[in-house]
Amino acid sequence: MLPLSMTLAFERQGSGPPLVLIHGLGHRRQGWNAVLDLLTPYREVITLDLPGHGESPPLRLSTDNPVEEVAGQIASQLDELDLPRPHVGGNSLGGVLALALAATGHAASVTALSPAGFPGHRYEMPYAHAVFTVARAGAQAMEPVVKSLAGSTAGRTLLYGQMVSRPRLVPPEQVPGDIASFARAGAAMRAFFAGPQDFTEPVDVPVTIAWGSKDRILRPSNAVVAKQRLPNARFIKLTGCGHVPMTDDPKAVARILLDGSSTGS
């Protein structure tokens, strides 16, 4: 059960240096399940649901900068968990949140998978917003039949085709919860797309950026901007992976997370 003092739903498992994993917009902490067994022998892994996602309470903001404010909420919860400066990994929105945590001294290292926040063209954020809006409407419409769709590769392709490159590898039992979380996350989606895209880059924190070569949401051209803004980061191409790469290639993603969290202190 979630302690009363905590804000966000979370799970904590494994042993070793702590590694916090932050999912992307519309997803949930179970999105990391495909890599957990490859990480927990070497890391204490903490997965959490962002506000307005999964089992966490709704997103409530007191400023117009949701990235900085939610990063602050995560930092407060990590302090309560006696994790003042863990390694942090994130996907998409989770990637930019991980970078924001590092910029305020709350991360020993950052490993970001296709992080948001690096648009190279002015059309890219409106495009991503449109994709998420349409996808959420589709998720709401398909919720009554999602269990039937989850049982076939064609059904999972319909549900996940924009986000992953290998929908057949998404476990059918994961699908209903993912779609329910995505359908629920409308308020959070609107808030993050309405907020500023600028954030403070971390200094003196090891950063690894990995980008799926088949990312259809934040195309790999965003990595060019990321390299300009984070010249000291290590960049890796996730060959054949989509925007949410954890089920596309669990071994490669786990290896990148372990390597990225082996530096820093």
Give the topology:
Elements: E1 10-14, E2 18-22, H1 33-39, E3 44-48, H2 66-80, E4 87-91, H3 93-103, E5 109-113, H4 124-142, H5 146-150, H6 153-160, H7 175-184, H8 186-194, E6 207-212, H9 222-229, E7 234-238, H10 250-260
Parallel strand pairs: 2-3, 2-4, 4-5, 5-6, 6-7
Antiparallel strand pairs: 1-3
Helix pairs in contact: 1-10, 2-3, 4-7
What are the defining features of this structure?
alpha/beta, 265 residues, Rossmann fold
Summarize the structure.
The chain has 265 residues and is an alpha/beta fold.
Describe the structure.
With 265 residues, this protein is of the alpha/beta class. The model is unreliable at 1-6 (pLDDT under 50). The protein is globular, with a radius of gyration of 17 Å. It has helices at residues 33-39, 66-80, 93-103, 124-142, 146-150, 153-160, 175-184, 186-194, 222-229, 250-260, and strands at residues 10-14, 18-22, 44-48, 87-91, 109-113, 207-212, 234-238. The chain is built from ten helices and seven strands. Helix content is 39%, strand content 14%. Helix 9 (222-229) links the parallel strand 6 (207-212) and strand 7. It has a domain at 10-120 and 196-260: Alpha/Beta hydrolase fold, catalytic domain (Rossmann fold). The protein has a seven-stranded mixed sheet with strand order 1-3-2-4-5-6-7, sandwiched between helices.
